[in-house]
Amino acid sequence: MQPIKRSRKHVEEEPTMAEPKIKYDRQLRIWGEVGQAALEEASICLLNCGPTGSEALKNLVLGGVGCITIVDGSTVQIGDLGNNFMVDAKSVGQSKAKSVCAFLQELNDSVNARFIEENPDTLITTNPSFFSQFTLVIATQLVEDSMVKLDRICREANVKLVLVRSYGLAGFVRISVKEHPIIDSKPDHFLDDLRLNNPWPELKSFVETIDLNVSEPPAAHKHIPYVVILVKMAEEWALSHSGNLPSTREEKKEFKDLVKSKMISTDEDNYKEAIEAAFKVFAPRGISSEVQKLINDSCAEANSNSSAFWVMVAALKEFVLNEGDGEAPLEGSIPDMTSSTEHYINLQKIYLAKAEADFLAMEERVKNILKKIGRDPNSISKPTIKSFCKNARKLKLCRYRMVEDEFSNPSVTEIQKYLADEDYSGAMGFYILLRAADRFAANYNKFPGQFDGGMDEDISRLKTTALSLLTDLGCNGAVLPDDLINEMCRFGASEIHVVSAFVGGIASQEVIKLVTKQFVPMLGTYIFNGIDHKSQLLKL
Amino acid sequence: MADLDVPPQVPQSKTRDLDKLLLRHGNLVDPGFFPGPDLRDDIRDYVRILVVGAGGLGCELLKDLALSGFRNLDVIDMDRIEVTNLNRQFLFRLEDVGKPKAEVAAKRVMERVSGVEIVPHFSRIEDKEIEFYSDFNIIALGLDSIEARKYINGVACGFLEYNEDDTPKRETIKPMVDGGTEGFKGHARVILPGVTPCFECTIYLFPPQVKFPLCTLAETPRNAAHCIEYAHLIQWEAVHHGKTFDPDEPEHMKWVYDEAIRRAELFGIPGVTYSLTQGVVKNIIPAIASTNAIISAACALETLKIVSACSKTLVNYLTYNGGEGLYTEVTKFERDTDCLVCGPGILIELDTSVTLSKFIEMLEDHPKLLLSKASVKHGENTLYMQAPPVLEEFHRPKLSKPLYDLMGRVQKDTIHVFGTALKNNEKESCSTKVRVVFKGADGVTDMDTAIGA
Asked: Is the complex ipTM more than 0.85?
């Protein structure tokens, strides 16, 4: 690194905080040090470094990805100066990969950046084993044939693949990975794991130590946390309703009124919170259908080839059936709520202790399963199992069709549904037209509208090509609006910088999700519609 | 471009890709699209864009606009570069830390994209004359605060004039494009004052900031943030007596952190870290490069569309969420026709005898305004300024004159008032339009009686 000149005032420093940690502070607050470490270990390959590829990679270099390899065989043209920020006038005539690599390296010297001057299509055909060294490949501006071939190669080598295309005001992003399990899916909104309607013995006995009718000291009544109030009220309700919880709208209202009736003055925030949180009492007990689906998956029968994720899912399945009594391991954290400090801290400890007990049970099961399938019982680390337990209710699994399967055999009913839907028809139309443009290029050795002149002929040829593609896909009789076909020809395979920055930005965001194994990557084929922004994820 | 002196049809042109959109006829375009070299050249030569903010969005916006056919850009930002900017503000390097963002950003883009002229303004947005903002065709906002958005919104809407029938005068519309991000989420929107909702029309889109009740901080702290805020908001003042807390001063932050640790230990509360202390005290919004790139690109694309009509303009709000899968949605928000900022203005009926100072008092009492310390402008003509003292003194003699006379004895007109308004117990700078109608002044004959009354 270069010597650091800094004006004292504008650096957030802490004696123990290293420079990179400060630099990445705003993203560490999102994916944490575990996520950052995953990024720093990743080796990313970029195919074609026009604006789409350059912009996608730029965002990853800034974030501190470990290693980038840029593959592009072209030289910088004057036209590239108008849409790519990673080339300049001095680089005209020189290797584009070299120029882009040098400018990207400037953004972050902790990234290991290299380039290969070679045409990606040639590389795909002549040297498929090249790709196996990477964590992930970002392939930009490839035509259909190359995408299909590359997908096969990457699947085989277990390399993640993100395909990106920018074409006039249209764009395309598609992930291809056989299977992407996520433990830390970080959903925006998720019901807290409080077990208000299914308390375990320790929680129950803590609740029993607190008297809702306490009158001394005067503040005590308004400092009872709502968890205690609701556990008590749920129990009281169940006693008088033969063990059932409120289920109908009337019963739910009645329950809330019951809670309200316990208020002794109108300024009791804890009771207001209890009424607002009453819906947590009504939530069904046990695991969600999504978790159920996961533990029913055939992969949840662990064998010697099972990944750590599936071994833990197998353990989860046993846990739910045994000590979990229908529930997943407890998450262990509680939201902030009006309470005395003492009650809150005690409650926190009770939840944490239960989470720890559940974790120990899970750890035992994981070890036993590993032993059974002939693996080192300690091969899955404690922190991994802990994280799995904490997120057991939020586990996600993304599986992607092979690109070839989708291209040759998409869901016809979905295509027809999308074409008929006002919000989707533009995106669906672009999907067909992007593929038709590749067929057009294969037939006529240029993209529709790529050169000035002959526009009318290109329009009618593109239309014919698109309709025959639709027929090949089994959508006989489907039509595309002429306006859209015209626009596609007008685009003439141009790479508009802002469209590239948009789809490239999305690609880099998806790469981050795939590499950090946090958040949930997109499922389906994303079509960018720059005309009215009715972009859509098509499930084909 | 022109400096290369080659006709546009020649493949060796920097506008190779953009020309497809700007030189060719389109079917899905906005009304008023006249493709051709003139359109491209006019965008290059005559359109001026102001980028407000040179941070995560601003850096991207400058690059995006420079590569979208615009050559005349200005950028305004009062901040200096910090180390924590470097994970996304790609125009800055470690050696730039401490330098003004606007200046470095402008320099870097001009170095890379030849022909582009970017004028940096290392300044607060409030310190610029209102006229400064009127020079631009479009204002692109890359901001992270609601206050700054409100200010620019007020300025841009201030240029808006209405016809007799309450329709906006086209030539007075100052379009804005606005982006915002947080983590994997963001929004991009187009604001055409008088046509689509302005910030104030949809102020409900910004959730109120979470603030802890003081009694929680003082009496029943339960988590690390409570301990940090106690040290920051209560203990600092108690110990330092009037010395202002400066979040950029590491020693101040360290003090708050140490006090928060002490308090947390006292109550048995886990989780106070230096990083969390900074996060809570500075209200840090997590930010990453990719989201900024996505949102800025959408804003720049809309800027190009507004200027050229080369495609359909976004109507009018794009939501982006990349956290769980990928979710985008376009929402057509509706205007608040009573909006104080972009609406035709608050109607105030006055006697022709009302003096300027009486009028300024009325602004303070007006239930919809509650505007104190108001400065008053009538078109280009400043009627009164509260500050600086030298200008106040200059305008002071007018205070005792009738507003009617000061406004050139017209029966009705719009004036602009600027001052501080009390909203939710907090003072905010605020600018608003007032439509003044003088009672009984519609004819010369009535005038004397009105004054005499």
From this structure: yes
